[in-house]
Amino acid sequence: MEQSQDDVSWQEIAGKVKIIFTVVFMLIGAELLYRWMTHPDDSFSIYQEFIAWIWFNLHSIIFGSDTIIITTGENGLLNVIDFTHPNLIGSDIPLLEVTDECVGIHEIAFVCFMIWMTPGISKNLKLRGIASMTLILSTLNISRLLVLYPLAVNGCSNSLGEYGCWSPMWDFHQLMLDSGFLIIILIGWTGWFILVGGPSKTREIGDISKLITIPKGIKQRNPLPQWSLVILFIAGILAVSSAYTLGFDDGADREKIEALGCEGVISAICAEEIREWENISGKAIRNLLTSALFTTFALMKFQWTSNTDEEE
Question: Which of 147, 115, 142 is CA-nearest to residue 50?
């Protein structure tokens, strides 16, 4: 029995399956790398304070400055929010800390990686998509934080002073972190993919090399552009700060000694000391790695083989 010209061969099917599995493994690899890079507590401390500041000020404008208080947490960051309202008195509503998981960096990084690795799309369209999705997700994240207050107040309107009456706030918060943002990411990426004509551009891709490109050449940037100097300056700050923390900072050295003294000891105090030193050393090591990557990117120019970099 002869095979029709319209039939898909097993070789083509195998090629498509290979591409799908490659995409999945790349996403898993990127996720694991992100988790490792952000393992220390408060990995985005400056950005966490910035988001808390935006939340506090927008909330004050919308609901009134007497309904919210911003305070410093145990980590020394000004990123703890406390709601005040007659409905919430006696309900033991918890303080809301803007942690590194609440600022939306993970979701933004994930969708940006999805967009960047999409084959068949020009670099310019990818950059526009990344900028658009970053703006959308950042706006939605701030909106999510602003919604928490009315959810808590309304939840306690019929049960004043009852513990846990603010649970609608917490349920919504968990829903968004667990699955809400993932759904938004999938819808956002799908919409972008269709908008830029992705289906027609990727339908004929059967070669996995179009998905994973390797630099065909690496050379030093000479002369260095202005943006390279800025990146080198940032990399230098990261490197010097990390080296100082690991080698010369008295506070960090004290934490290291206390953590070493707690090895093999099971207690809450020792667990906290070990965690504190792991956070300090972990951030410093990751900053050194980031500094090295920034320096490489600023000094070296990578020449890629690509058929989709033209303006579309």
Answer: 142
